[in-house]
Design a protein that fits this description.
Blueprint: E1 15-19, H1 22-35, E2 40-44, H2 51-65, E3 69-75, H3 76-79, H4 83-95, E4 99-103, H5 108-113, H6 125-133, H7 143-147, H8 153-157, H9 161-177, H10 187-198, H11 204-214
Parallel strand pairs: 1-2, 1-3, 3-4
Helix pairs in contact: 2-4
Length: 215
């Protein structure tokens, strides 16, 4: 009688996202839940005040949790930074082995990328919020929205993820052509690494739940 060979799978590498705002932490927590990314951890750096604080906090959590990859996520508007500030802090981030992912002006820019490419550079988050409200009637950029009416926002946006990546590239090119020295939307590398580290999203549970709601 032949013995079955044991299938030994290497444990997945661990992936940490440290968010500067509660809204960012909630969005990526939705992603973690919807896609069943069991090796992803999402933390909200609630007490931080500066980008430097965020990087140092993320580095501390990376070491404490022995994470294989750590990203710090923030928005220019929420952190009160400009391109020069981010470039300066990139040196510290590299030293502490922290990857930076940002949106300029704020996180809803990433939501918008799932729907369209702006024809001009947007400097204020309110303009994005007004546009998104045309699609999601109760939309606002707050954490409260993601806890209530927007609790399924990631799930609604997920089918257009590939389009969001393409739209981000087009929008970044527009911004650079208009004089930007940093791309306003750099979530593309982050989303790529999430797939590399966490694997293919398992959306089967969500599809079943949607089916139940429609019945």
């Amino acid at each position: 009688m032949k013995r079955r060979k044991k299938v030994i799978e290497k444990p997945r590498k661990t992936f940490l996202i440290v968010a500067a705002s509660e809204a960012e932490s909630l969005y990526f927590s939705q992603m973690r839940k919807d896609c069943r990314y069991t090796n992803m951890t999402v933390l909200w750096a609630e007490e931080i005040e500066t980008l430097e604080d965020l990087i140092k906090f993320a580095a501390k959590e990376r070491t404490k949790g022995k994470f294989d990859r750590t990203w710090a996520v923030f928005s220019f508007e929420q952190m009160g930074v400009d391109e020069a500030d981010v470039k300066e802090m990139q040196v510290l981030a590299n030293k502490r082995k922290i990857q930076l992912a940002w949106t300029n002006p704020d996180l809803p820019l990433w939501y918008l990328m799932h729907l369209q490419v702006p024809t001009q550079v947007i400097s204020e988050g309110k303009a994005i919020e007004n546009t998104l409200r045309g699609v999601f009637k109760e939309f606002d950029s707050s954490a409260e929205y993601l806890l209530d009416e927007g609790s399924s926002l990631h799930l609604k946006l997920f089918p257009a993820k590939a389009q969001a990546v393409m739209n981000s590239g087009s929008y970044n090119n527009l911004a650079l052509a208009k004089g930007a020295t940093l791309v306003p939307m750099n979530f593309t590398k982050l989303t790529t690494e999430i797939a590399d580290y966490c694997g293919v999203a398992d959306m089967s549970h969500n599809q079943k739940m949607i089916g139940l709601k429609n019945n």
